[in-house]
Amino acid sequence: MRDAVMVVEDDVEMGGLLERGLLGDGYDVALFSNGVDALNAARDADYAAAVLDVMLPGMSGFEICRHLRASGATLPVIMLTARDALQDRVFGLDAGADDYLAKPFHFEELSARLRAMIRRERLTHRAPVVIGNLRMDPYTHSATVDGAVLPLSPKEFGVLRVLAVRAGGFVRREELLLEVWGSAEFVDHNIAEQYISYLRRKLVAGAASVEIVTRRGAGYRLGVKP
């Protein structure tokens, strides 16, 4: 079953662009032009994420987001607005939004942010991940090696968790920055390599049977030592 994304956008042209782009990304799309219809549909649907325009007729994107959160919905929400004002960003985040994108924007950026938000949401609901003698529990934010606690900072745990969920495959540096730090644009790219270095030392000190491999142009991969 494909993930479904709820889009609330009253501009017909923009709504069509978003719908076509998201369909091209492999999502099912539920497109609404107003908040009332969107909220009514959300009661019976299981959306992977929501894209909300701020300026809507009758009910703003802020209000839609507040209603979603008040109903207990935990789906990731990204707000779209023509204004890049600080107050708008504050309103959106206070209403429960996870991210904020000012128009005009490149669809590729919206697409990447949606993927990252959906992955982060699912990571928090996953069962413990076990690779070799390493066990990671997303509920307690703890990692153990053969039952012994591996002391990790929150960011170290975040980096290792992303690698663990995709164990065996490479994760690009930009993906790590987006998923753990929330941005690949405003964060020093060297920070990812620093945390990979911290984790390597701790995995060795903890006698873990896994290692992090770096491949230029591909990224980082967590796997069991040969």
General description of the model:
With 226 residues, the chain is α/β, with parallel strands linked by helices. The chain folds into two domains: 4-123, 3-Layer(aba) Sandwich (Rossmann fold), CATH 3.40.50.2300; 129-224, Winged helix-like DNA-binding domain superfamily/Winged helix DNA-binding domain (Arc Repressor Mutant, subunit A). Helix content is 42%, strand content 22%. The chain has eight helices and eleven strands. It has helices at residues 12-24, 35-42, 61-70, 86-94, 107-123, 154-165, 173-181, 190-205; strands at 4-8, 28-32, 49-53, 77-81, 99-102, 129-131, 134-137, 142-145, 148-149, 210-215, 219-224. The chain has a five-stranded parallel beta sheet with strand order 2-1-3-4-5, with helices on both faces. It has a four-stranded antiparallel beta sheet with strand order 6-7-8-9, covered by helices on one side. It is elongated. The mean pLDDT is 88.
CATH architecture of the largest domain: 3-Layer(aba) Sandwich
CATH class of the largest domain: Alpha Beta
* Tally of separate domains: 2
Q: Total strand count, please?
A: 11
Gross morphology is: elongated
Q: Spatial order of the strands in the main sheet?
A: 2-1-3-4-5
Looking at CATH, the homologous superfamily of the largest domain is Response regulator
Distance between the termini: 36 Å
Radius of gyration: 19 Å
Average pLDDT for all residues: 88
SSE ordering: EHEHEHEHEHEEEEHHHEE
The CATH topology of the largest domain is Rossmann fold
Helix content: 40-55%
Q: SS-based structural class?
A: alpha/beta
Instruction: Identify low-pLDDT runs.
Output: none
Task: Please give the largest β-sheet.
Answer: 5 strands, parallel
How many helix segments? Answer: 8
Q: How much of the polypeptide forms β-strand, as a percent range?
A: 15-25%
